[in-house]
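Hi all, long-time lurker, first post. I run a small reading group and we've been trying to get comfortable going from sequence to structure in the token notation. Rather than ask abstract questions, I figured I'd post a concrete chain and ask someone more experienced to write out its structure so we can walk through it together at our next meeting. Sequence below, copied exactly:
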Amino acid sequence: MDEDAWYGFFSPKFSEKTGLGIADIQAFVDKVTTTKEVDVVLFSPQPDMGAHFLNVFEQAEMFDTGFIQTAKNFLATVGMQLPLEGIVMDSRQIVFSNYFIAKPAFWREWFQLTEMLFAVAENPAHPLHAELTTNTSYSENSHRKVFLMERIASLLLFLRPEYKVAVANTFQFSWSMSKLRQSPEKAYISDALKIAFKELGFPQYMDAFRKIRQSL
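-- Answer (accepted) --
Happy to help. Here is the structure in token form:
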């Protein structure tokens, strides 16, 4: 791999979900890298799903009960004990649909962790095989392992703040089909409150975030 090159792997629905084409991606990367060093660039859709939950694991739990425990069980097998219920992610760490591009250093770390996930999920004798291959409500034969893999990039960005991230405006991309999309201003505010809480640590920001969540 070229250490200075960008790599990304997008599904066929990328343009539908973001409204972007390859020229738009190239232009955005050129723009954000002219003035600063960047390791990862995010093009994450469904901003309401990111803004109104503490993190991407809590968001998955809403639609697949038991997801967080399975994620914690897997991470424990690779030596990572994490309180996934309480960690706070904002738009600078949230990645849906694997819509990101990155330099090789990030991809290598991502690949190392996802290879471990693959090995566990594909081994019928492993204690977590059944949990990881259970179906979710997303669609028929949509296994939990797929949605855990989708959250690895977000996890790494949370754990490794030394990675320099640039974020395309998530609020310009497609929103979810849930009722949360009906309150865009609350999504803007919720994400901003999480950013403020992480930067300053004032509990009032998190109190306000929770009040907005309760109102929805």
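A couple of things your group might point at:
The two ends are 45 Å apart (CA to CA).
The chain has a mean pLDDT of 95.
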